[in-house]
Specification:
Elements lengths: L8 H4 L11 E5 L2 E7 L4 E8 L16 E3 L1
Antiparallel strand pairs: 1-2, 2-3, 3-4
């Protein structure tokens, strides 16, 4: 790969090795989601796992949204 950037190479790849290990897969409204657990039964959506393109248009399932599970 070639990256054309004025940034220092270390700044471009900073944090790429950080792995989030506290992610869970859960079913929400009949769909599979990868979430980051928060307090009191809440979770932040990290990724939607679905084969239906219409599911990705739902704003309540967008990455960063907070859901109850």
């Amino acid at each position: 790969m070639i990256y054309w950037t004025p940034l220092d190479l270390d700044a471009v790849f900073e944090g790429w090795d950080d792995v989030q290990t506290n992610l869970l897969e859960t079913e929400y409204d009949g769909l599979l989601l990868q979430v980051e657990p928060l307090e009191q039964g809440k979770a932040r959506v990290v990724r939607l796992i679905s084969g239906n393109p219409m599911d990705y248009l739902r704003p309540d399932l967008a990455p960063g949204s907070v859901i109850s599970y």
